[in-house]
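Input for the complex:
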Amino acid sequence: MTAAQIFAIIIFVGMFVMIVLDKIERHYVTLGSGALTLLVVFGICMHSGNAITDTLAVKQFFTKDFWYQVTESESKGINWATIIFIAGMMVMVEGMAKAGFFRWLCMKIAYLVKCRTVPIFITFMLMSAVLSMFIDSITVIMFLAAVTIELATLLRFNPVPMILSEIFCANLGGSATMCGDPPNIIVGTSLGFSFFDFLTNTGLCAAICLVISMIFLYFAFRKEISGGKHEPVDLSKFPKPSEAITNKKDFVISSVIFGLAVLLLVTHATTHLTVASIGLFIAAVTLIAFGRHAKELLKKVDYKTLLFFIGLFVVVSGLEETGILKLIANFIGDISGGDVRLMIAIILWVSAIASAFVDNIPFAATMVPVIQSLAESSGVPISTLAWSLSIGTDIGGSATPIGASANVVGTSVAQKNGYPIGWGRYCKKLAPATVIVLAISTVYLFVRYL
Amino acid sequence: MSQYIISVGREFGSGGRVIAEELAKRFNIPIYDRHLITAIANKTGLTPEEIEKYNEKPKNHLLSRRVNGFSNSIEDNIAEMQFSFLREKALSGESFVVVGRCSETKLRDFKCLISLFILGDREKKIRRVMEVYDLPEDKAKAFIDKKDRKRKRYHNYHCEGHWGDSRLYDLSINSSRLGISRTIDLLEEYVKARISEE
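Predicted:
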């Protein structure tokens, strides 16, 4: 093993440990680790200026392919497309939140089902999954959980089962599209897949799993859900959905922009606009539309997450450039003995188990070059491995309270309102649900791609 | 000064809680210690036992995660609720005594904050814990170490400064030197001086 490889591993493991320990904010950790990778691994050990320029990948911005792509291509180094797209969506979501869109939607649906507990449970699960297909699950759960608690107080039911189910469905919905969950954006932009590719592959799997999960969660929680107040609900005592709208004009604008974003994403394989172009366009339209409030929206963008991504991509490039990820790919190839079935199972289940305990974003970023290498050496189509990786990382995160961002946000909102959700309470129903969904996904992957 | 907040940090066995209670009595202001737990229990619907279980307890790093300021750790959320409660009280203009809860840091923006830290000689602390909790010496020693370790981890996780570092407090005092009763007298004088000065 070369010095560069040893340092790349030390930096990567150190970064992971620091993220888990949570002593220093995670964007400082990845940026610091990224700087060390550039300096020690590429500079001192490899003396490779090319490795540094390839990793920083600034040239990408000046290529036509980065904005308008006729043929699908793979990217290396810092995945700027992911970062620009996420930033754009953040601006759009901030605009929607400011206008009161999410709260309005939650209240509207609750009204449509006449504020009855079981229909709210079902529709909120569905809404969580559908919204998470296009919007980050943190935002979805933040609003859904808050409204669920509000409704629970008024209707006197325990909101915990509903919040847990919403979390689970948000993660499941996120797995359905390219922009649903950060690992999918990384997989899609790194390997050149379109929104439609995801929808027709992981999306179909997510749809099947969603139906089964909703049935499972209903039966798992039915006693707690239907144990609430049974007398007829007086809707006049409830806050009106229209009260959630802070500004009608902003509300209409943000709804139109959201519709436009969905349209652009669904058609991006036909229009050849890359996700980077879509992200930039959506951000620009939102900022122009919100005019004097644009500065306020920009301030609310989660720059820390964007910086976290930049540092992370540099560290993963360290592992890639030094050949560590190729070694891991060869190892997976060896233990599977060339058996595609075993390869899929390993990628799916290892990704799922890892994502249940560690952040699935660094895991997915690390695994993308691994599956690229594995596909080259084994001849297995990269798409098959990509869908296994996406489903594994997205779904596995549902198993524990720390597996995905939505889980942390949902449990935190519940706790702050007096409903503590510990590991036991969380895992009792959602860990088995995760295993069931993973088992279905395994069968789906085997049947469809083998 | 019309409003004053007395924050009392303390080593276990130093008599910090007793001192805080007596100061609250002498100045005729409420004290937030155990009472804080009851207040949060009333506000959230949690039982005091549930809150007590996670009170002033550091989180388990391996079992918790933080995302955009949200944390899945019950310990973190109970702590945040206590900090918010204290801030609300401070903002309302109320004068009070608060024991622990990183209050010297969390309320440092309030000019009316008077922050104290009570420490003690180890031997004296052991003897006091043996008496108060009816424990043999070895158990009292272990109890003190455990409690102080917990408080230190809790404080240092939620604050930038180190627990017990004199630079964080207006006044750090060893209660073993004068004894608890005379320490209270001295602190009362100090608080009065602060109140009259500003």
